Amino acid sequence: xxxxxxxxxxxxxxxxxxxxxxxxxxxxxxxxxxxxxxxxxxxxxxxxxxxxxxxxxxxxxxxxxxxxxxxxxxxxxxxxxxxxxxxxxxxxxxxxxxxxxxxxxxxxxxxxxxxxxxxxxxxxxxxxxxxxxxxxxxxxxxxxxxxxxxxxxxxxxxxxxxxxxxxxxxxxxxxxxxxxxxxxxxxxxxxxxxxxxxxxxxxxxxxxxxxxxxxxxxxxxxxxxxxxxxxxxxxxxxxxxxxxxxxxxxxxxxxxxxxxxxxxxxxxxxxxxxxxxxxxxxxxxxxxxxxxxxxxxxxxxxxxxxxxxxxxxxxxxxxxxxxxxxxxxxxxxxxxxxxxxxxxxxxxxxxxxxxxxxxxxxxxxxxxxxxxxxxxxxxxxxxxxxxxxxxxxxxx
Amino acid sequence: xxxxxxxxxxxxxxxxxxxxxxxxxxxxxxxxxxxxxxxxxxxxxxxxxxxxxxxxxxxxxxxxxxxxxxxxxxxxxxxxxxxxxxxxxxxxxxxxxxxxxxxxxxxxxxxxxxxxxxxxxxxxxxxxxxxxxxxxxxxxxxxxxxxxxxxxxxxxxxxxxxxxxxxxxxxxxxxxxxxxxxxxxxxxxxxxxxxxxxxxxxxxxxxxxxxxxxxxxxxxxxxxxxxxxxxxxxxxxxxxxxxxxxxxxxxxxxxxxxxxxxxxxxxxxxxxxxxxxxxxxxxxxxxxxxxxxxxxxxxxxxxxxxxxxxx
Lengths: 396, 311
What we know:
Chain A is of the alpha/beta class. Chain A has helices spanning 9-20, 35-45, 59-72, 82-97, 122-126, 140-155, 184-191, 215-247, 272-285, 303-310, 331-340, 363-379, and strands at residues 3-8, 24-27, 52-55, 76-80, 103-108, 133-136, 163-168, 176-181, 208-209, 254-257, 264-269, 290-295, 297-299, 315-320, 348-353, 386-388. Chain A is built from twelve helices and 16 strands.
């Protein structure tokens, strides 16, 4: 039997971790993800889990310890944010290329500078090419549910890739919501156990991990890794299907909200979707065919599916909550543009970078975006393809 | 059981020939001896920092290691070992590995990966008290990238980033005393050794380190023919000179108690070590005599300090 509980995103993730009772948790504190290992430390102290909980001296070491543990045959986890994720950068790539399915909870937070502890996706987006699968949640329930799916996706034999469960720093990580928490035993049954066939501590068959790969072998390893990322898409859908059967909540690669006949759409991620949905609902009341796509899975990027979902729109705005500093748009924009590029008849596409460092995003902002899309559809003029929203007008 | 070289050499090899280390490199000798110090009935997991040893001993699809082995990066051998050690504990507790099989967790890195970039990771793992042994093969510089100075490079050594020249007599700073720093962590067993004599000193220390519970550390002076500039066949003589001059004293620290494991009958002058290597060639040029005097003074002072700790 599931129960309803008032939990923050961090506590929801920590609860999922407790229910899964992983083998090893290597932690290092950073705002706003710190609460996750704090809750977990209390579970250890109270004997509610049997995990080896190691308090290491940096994020680089927390992920390194996870890699050692995972290679040794364990289910290993950690959590971080912002600079901590950046500090892990080198090891993120090693985790993915070594095909070690560590699960990493990320409370997404702006990167320095100036130093800022609030939400945007500069940390996770900077790691979009690391080889991690990335799942994003709109609210505490989705973050909890994504975590329950995470190990099964990451550890699947045709995937074997590490995975980030991303929540919005403070907005999701700290705000408390009344959510559905599944029964401990049901979670354990759903997630299952991790029993790799090869591991360092296998008595009769030693394993060697992390070779020097010269040019004759390197590319094959990278292609195999790329194929695994492609294969992850199907596995994510299969796990979602079983999740729905087991717990009743339905997930896909993205949520298409009122998109059936939408002419104007936004593409965005995380908690902003709740705000934008309010704008869509109000526009729909006025007979305006507005819709939105909320990406749940950013890696692997659901390009084909997104193309199908957007192909009949007149104008689409991507809302990027991180600056890619490419000079021509944020990361979600470039991926979306790539997905649409081969359509014969494409919607007009613009990118709006917003909400950096916790800058507020309101229903009014979302309505302004749709208004712009309607104007673009009317005039056929896109105007600036790449712009920033919510910047102080005094320029200071 | 008393050390018997012949018996030791008859053990099944756990670090195989065919690796790509240079002729005259000490690291291969270290690895073979390190693995001989693991009892035949026991298993090991080797956690290796990036460096010459890693790229030479595990080049896909070949490995020189008989036991399980993991390399992840340069600066994190100790953190990786921490994870493996935690895994061994929890898997034993959860009944997923045979409780009667001992897995000895060994980390190994060069001086770059230990004294410098891997120092934080090492310190963290020592402080946390993981049950593992760290072997540093200290060859006094970043050899894999071509002899750049490290904090283990001795004063006056010419390295590619501290070259000797008209205005330079090589590295300006003395070697970081990492062994003492590890002792300060309160590790139950810390030792310094090198490739010396019948390898008895190495073997006994390695064995004791591996079979002492907790974080233990063995610092091994490990000459590099390319970086130090000596003929391959001089490897063992160079090690002997380092010991006989007291440049690299052989000692161990057991629960904070210091013990010299070898005292030269007659302490040789530092020239005996330095003149065999091209990295010190400039010290023997007219006008640079002071460098040898300064090196001697430093070695004398450190030796006296060590003797006072051992008394």
